[in-house]
What we know:
By secondary structure, this protein is α/β, with parallel strands linked by helices. It contains 19 helices and 30 strands. The N terminus and C terminus are likely disordered.
Amino acid sequence: MLRPLSLLPALVVVAATAAVGVVPTEPASAGPAPGPAPSAAPAEEDAPLAVALDSVSPSAIPREGRVTVVGTVTNLDDVTWSAINMYPFVSAEPLTTRAEIAEAVDSDPQVSVGDRLTDQGPYDTIDRLDPGETARFAVRVRQRDLGADEQGVYWFGVHALGETTEGRDDVATADGRARTFLPRMTGSGRQVQTAVVVPVRGAIDYDPDGSLADPEDWTSTLSDGGRLQSLVELGAAAGSRPVSWLVDPALPDAVARLAAGNPGRSLAPSLDPDATEDPDAAAVDPGSSASPSPSPSEPVPPVTLEPDDGEESEESGDAPAEEPDPADLAAAEAATGWLDLFRDALGSGEALALPYGDLDVAAAAQHDPGAYLRARERSGSALQPGDVATTPALGSPAGYLDERAIRMVSDEETIVVSDEMLAALGPDVPAVVTFAGHRLVVAASDVATGGPGPDDPLATVALRQRVLAEAAVRRLETPRAPLVVVLPTGWIPDDPEEFFGGLDHDWLDLDTLTDVAETRATPVDAEELLYPESQVRRELDEAAFAAATALTEAGRTLQNLLTRNDTVGREVSDQAMTSLSYAARIDPRAVRADTEAATAEIDRQLRDVSVSAPDKVILSSASGQFSALLENSLDESVTVRIQAVADESMTITMPDEDITLPPGGRRTVLLTAATEQQGVHNVTLRVTDIAGTPLGSSDRLPIRAAQVSGVIWLIIATGCALLFGAIAVRLVRRLRAARRTPQAEPTDHADAPDTSQEHAPA
Length: 762
């Protein structure tokens, strides 16, 4: 690699000349002179050395002592670097407004923004770094050497200057750099109320049988280094510091399913087999003696999933369970650990419950407002695990809600929006506004983008220092506006302890989102609320809500069908709710296809209960009876009814009772057909659940009405009367004739004389 010739001799001459005429009042440096952040020419676009900051302690300029920076340097070049000297740098003037912070973050990472401190010589040196190799460094700089006396936010970072076989460029801006913000605050009487919100939300995908899809992905995100694991570790690292958890209750429920072995939806009885009351029957017929189902206004109990030990039941004699899937076993282990950590982390701060499934509220307001009511009801007032009390809250991942959605939700909801939604109010957006009777807490959206480049803007140190910078400039405002920070949904903090450990300052007051919502609010009009067209285009469409409704109804029918199961309907409903989440916006067609596949699977199970009718029925009178055969091919007991559909002239009656079929059972049902109209009548028999919802199985039969008319019956009766009359007349005549004819007296042949000789020839 070609390197420019060293300018060290020229630098010495310039330094000597300057020393004759001036006495420096700032630390000597090899960079730009003290003053506002200079607009120096950019350094090489592709720096050969990459510098990353792992720790900055303390996280604000102290009153005295040192600031210690620990990090790494990686050689991105294809040649070896050696004698890599590490120098801190700091800006001459602080940033004091939100606009200046935002402009600084967007600045060119290669532009020099601060003076390199060289009085102490290299603060650390890395002797040798081969291509692709990484080495650690530690830089310690005294507070008085920083020269940062005014309140505000200073640029601060580290330069790496090294050499190759072609020499060293001692006046280069840097061969590698990392930069961040370092606040300087004095006094302790003015505190900035700051709320840190940790979102626990994400896509939840199901297979058609009700088990969670892609258990390998769940294992990854719930294990060390995974997104959900890291976020929970971050919250746990807060210790006693208040943290606001913004949780989709469907997510810990899904993790609980994984911990139970990721079972599919179960059709097995969930009620006491000895009980005589059926809550499903009570829901269909409120006048029955069965216990009523939970009222819609009452909290909905969660579905309990028990781990499956895979052992054969001695009492039931069932076949041994299948060998557990290794992927499900790994997911179960990761999920169990995550639930334990999550339960402990929820101990501090507050839990804010989103509508169940992280509902796309803006889309629901347009296509199905009832979906919001169902999702809010399902969230309940307690969060699993640990039965932690929750507060209803609302907020989209992008921070946008339209006017219709805001007006739809309850006044009790804590609504979180982005300051970009209120851009019409200028750069200094209030932390709390009111609209249509609702209080909206405004989050600083820029903070979620992280710190300035060139290193990772979402590194733990970068994001934390951005939070501190935003809080510091608000402290300088009059009046002081609270700061609300919603951490990025996909953020993976590499050092949770480092993040919260650096927020302990006497000028920063960590608080909950609910407390911030109670502060002074600014009224706004509808014209001041921005809901961009890009958000409208991304909303879920009507077809997504129709698919979710169809799945929910299929689950309700399946539960009504099963004799002793009162949980499967809620499991299916939960699955349907997750299909309407904000995460579904990423690929709505794929999510809708999965929802329709689940509905098709349930429909197949419903059709396993069938009805068969005779090939034909002939009525020889105005009414007659015929039989139909019900068959249950499921492995669980079901309770059904038969429904007959015929034309108006035909009436089909049947026993008015629920019919229970055991697993694999059959039953013949007697039906009565009646009609006054001759001809062929087509009748369709359907099998339904106890609420009368068809299950999908049906059979059609023709019924021929061949009854004879009344005139024919009269003719037949007359003929019969004539016939029997003629028979009677003939019998009478015979009797009379027999009486008129005299009968010869009987002769005794034994006493009669023998006259045979008298007539013999002589």
